[in-house]
Amino acid sequence: MSEKKQMVGDVYYPTPEVVAQAHVPDYEKVNSAAVADLAGFWGRIAAENFEWYEPWETVLDESNAPFYKWFVGAKVNIVHNALDRHQRTAVRNKAAMIFEGEPGDVRVLTYQQLNHQVCKFASVLRSMGVRKGDRVTIYMGRIPELAIAMLACAKIGAMHSVVYGGFSTEALHERIEDSQSRVLVTCDGAWLRGQIVELKKIANEAVDRSASIETVICVKRTGQEVEMVAERDHWYHDLMNLPIASPKAATEVMDAEDPLFILYTSGTTGKPKAILHTHGGYMVGTATTLKWVFDIKPEDIWWCAADPGWITGHSYIVYAPLVLGATSFMYEGAPTYPNPDRWWQLVARYGITILYTAPTAIRGLMRFGESWPEQHDLSSLRLLGTVGEPINPEAWRWYYRYIGKERCPVMDTWWQTETGSFMITPVPSMPLKPGSATRPFPGLQVDVVDEEGNPVPPNEEGYLVVKTPWPAMLRTIYGDPDRYVNQYWSRYEEQGWYLPGDSAKKDEDGYIWIIGRIDDVIKVSGYRLGTAEVESALVSHPAVAEAAVIGVPDELKGNIIKAFCILRQGYQGSEKLAKELKDHVGHEIGPIAKPATVEFVSTLPKTRSGKIMRRVLKAQALGQDVGDVSTLEA
Ligand code: WT7
């Protein structure tokens, strides 16, 4: 192994035990080979670790860039790799998913049992006429049926569109409308902090606004009375008991490049974008990154504490762990219910070996002090991870010290809904620096550049760019290929680089430090929200004529939302109205989007062409120099 290089800053070196068992013991070696022959690298991985109905002709087709294609000509289905193939081996009898509900109920599904449920639900969907290429919207809490519904769609070649259960009426309606789904799978409610989140009620309101939905399937979770519409609505358990719900169902043979799912994410302007991922590349990218970065072994119990409604859950609760034949743990509720040690109790009870969560959750639990984790045996843990926003070094060190007991490396993974899989991330054998996502995953080339694309000097801020394609990359924005090109590939069109929309620094050791978004995306507790969505929710209230929102730094949540509203004639700004507007945004988009403060103003700074200058509002709010306002409206 290469000698320990002298590195700059606060560096944590891996222990020899960690290096000895790592899938990637020497990053430099693997990375340089992968960079030298990217297609060869991924071609070998794809051939050795997955089952294909038919092999590919070309690993990577760049002829129509940025519409890249991977494993062209191959036939595959990700569900064949996640479930079908495991039925022939001992993995069949292993726990695929261990679930604990917030009230304390426990369910364990073996690979055989999960396959059984997925086949049954796939048969139900088929009997309802759902076919390859159709879209199915899924709006549920964090329960196994959410994964079952996703896998059933994928099995029959339908695209799922999961809408996070924390979203509300208008957000759900907008996503149903854009995808033109005919079927919605939902549940009566979800448990959160001892309360019921009334998902079916919200779903009913959203479907009332949407013309496309013909059928609603409802899982019974919380058991309260809900309104079921005759002809349109069916209970999941009734359908699963029908003879058509066959425990044996054929898996649709798909092209590697056929769509697997769409997932909406917030962008710079206008409505959310439907990010499209495919069966072949996404499978290879997500499974390989999980295996290498979190060093997955057969005996692990992997807990990705995200929600399946986000890309993190799609890739690393559902698909990648199952493709690897691993055991995935899922918890329904809040980390602090009934007490701030609920998570630590779960780690001890299930012997979780790897925990993957977000900085905001770590900061939230850190607030309660280390006496809570200290009451539990956390010795089963061997690796930790974080994702969603930059982690402040204090939170990193707390996590490392009090949760990982200075034994467990922390994998800070930078990636996006669009990238599908980890992009900038350590592997366990690599020296770590708190607050840095370290280096690109093997084969990937990233850099920090200026407007023209020149690399900026070490430790200076610039635009993060990705210079090479990767298998799990988004293929397009569903229904809007022009927006795909403009949004991600137009800034550095000549060079052909992907623009993630983040600013970053690179240090002397080549380590990347993500700073934050450079566009009108606000990260609140790691959730991605667009200013445009929140503003349009505000102006949908009768009192509001115009609105602008900005993100303001917050110690716990990373950012909070501050709203500026111009009222219509006849309305007076008041504390009561401010509360009403916050609740209105909560009702339309979801509690995560509620502005923390609402300020009533008589004008908003605008450019001559009428665009709101949020940068000016932000500088004013932070007491900073407003900068160049020469384009400001007179
Ligand atoms: C944005 C993508 C991908 C899973 C969850 C987020 C920020 C993500 C990190 C990290 C610093 C991060 C970026 C990125 N982000 N991970 N480890 N360090 N920032 O997915 O909702 O699509 O958001 O999250 O700003 O662009 P997403």
Keywords:
binds 5'-O-[(S)-butoxy(hydroxy)phosphoryl]adenosine; alpha/beta; single chain; seven-stranded mixed β-sheet
Structure description:
By secondary structure, the protein is α/β, with parallel strands linked by helices. Helices cover 30% and strands 22% of the residues. The chain has 19 helices and 30 strands. The protein has an eight-stranded mixed β-sheet, with helices on both faces. A seven-stranded mixed β-sheet has the order 5-4-17-16-18-19-20, sandwiched between helices. α5 packs across α6. The chain is globular. The mean pLDDT is 96. The structure holds 5'-O-[(S)-butoxy(hydroxy)phosphoryl]adenosine. 5'-O-[(S)-butoxy(hydroxy)phosphoryl]adenosine binds next to α11 and β25.
Q: Indicate the overall shape.
A: globular
Trace the largest sheet across and list its strands. Answer: 12-11-8-6-7-14-15-23
Q: How many H/I helical runs?
A: 19
Total beta-strand segments: 30
Model regions low in confidence, pLDDT < 50 over at least 5 residues = none
Hetero groups bound?
5'-O-[(S)-butoxy(hydroxy)phosphoryl]adenosine
**Whole-angstrom Rg:** 24 Å
What would the average pLDDT be, to the nearest integer? 96
